[in-house]
Amino acid sequence: MIEKVYCADVKPKMEGERVRLAGWVYRKREVGKKVFIVLRDSSGIMQTVFTKELSEEAYTKAKQVGIESSVIIEGVVKVDPRAPTGVEIQADKIEIIQNVEFFPITKDASDEFLLDVRHLHLHSPKVADIMKVKGTLMQAAREWLLQDGWYEVFPPILVTGAVEGGSTLFKLKYFDREAYLSQSAQLYLEAAIFGLEKVWSLTPSFRAEKSRTRRHLTEYWHLELEAAWMDLWDIMRVEEELVSYMVQRTLELRKKEIEGFRKDLTTLKNTEPPFPRISYDEAIDILQSKGVKIEWGEDMGADEERVLTEEFDRPFFVYGYPKHIKAFYMKEDPEDPRKVLAADMLAPEGYGEIIGGSQREDDYNKLVQRIIEEGMDPKNYEWYLDLRKYGSVPHSGFGLGLERLVTWVLKLDHIRWATLFPRTPSRIYP
Ligand SMILES: NC(=O)C[C@H]([NH3+])C(=O)NS(=O)(=O)OC[C@H]1O[C@@H](n2cnc3c(N)ncnc32)[C@H](O)[C@@H]1O
Ligand SMILES: [Mg+2]
Q: Which of 68, 79, 308, 358 is the right S-S partner for 330, CB 3.0 to 4.6 Å?
């Protein structure tokens, strides 16, 4: 790798030092007999100035170089309060690695065009900031999971059964048989708890969702946990501790990047346990009191959740959903057979569901009955049912949509901006 310093590491105390920077031409302007190039690298930006007096050769090359050209620039550090970072480089050397005559992304580029050239949109510092925040959220999750004694495991993505309903399965040909892309690692995590007790995985999950909403992708990153001996209330405490740590740690490490997307950090700062908890029944009452047309037993979609989140200034739980709107594996509420021991975590500010979780049905016969009730064939779940025959234990788990979390933390207007190359019903290229 070439000897260079990063833009963010060039400080006023380095005045007079000679430095070498490598990156891309972010901005360029000519003022009188000076050429100013704002160089961009992964750490930020740095103003560089070229004049004939400093170097006629460098000045001539600087005049010719195009936006987003890749360059190496050398010069001497000078403090200048007018420069974007308070310092600039008096440049006497520029090596043009590759000159760009015309970079296709311009200021007025439409969202659809940016998605068409997403591979070039990744040059953008704003996009880089989103990815830095996403990476830091996962760094924080790993920190918390390690200190709380959870084991990372690596479940399969090629599977033979639905977890979250057959209508959103991506089918594929697996040699001479049919297979699917995983909707959720959950069932495999449930098998892993018999040896490891507390497990987690980060995997891509696939949903052939036809709904074109601001919060659905067809491929997304899914952080899932599963724990033996835990009931719904235990796993809800795990969820709020994990999400709180992820948000607070990312606020600590990426405050500057977050402030580039939202000025008001209140809801993020409020993200501390315990989170408010309301029952599904209470949620329906709230929605009806606010004029939403919804009856008990109906599912809450993005619109209903948006209204519900107006009542809260931090993430909150909705628990105790009706059995018929939830998945087959969820344990029936012993106190009310109409309901299951499930809870979703909803993000405030209109973002809604970021986590789906539940206590699992650990009784063999009840699970067989639920599978049949859902119109599925117990034969397809034989291995999964075995988990209820050989030392079954009460257990619970959940799945957090990483892009859903990023979309809320940065108040993005669409989940597609929260992932490197978004996959939606109408987009699988580039
Ligand atoms: N291990 C578990 O218990 C997880 C469980 N089997 C599960 O998949 N639940 S979920 O369908 O609500 O999805 C979990 C989360 O996954 C996210 N999710 C769910 N579907 C999507 C789509 N289509 N796009 C983006 N994100 C999505 C969202 O945050 C959900 O709360
Ligand atoms: Mg869900």
A: 358
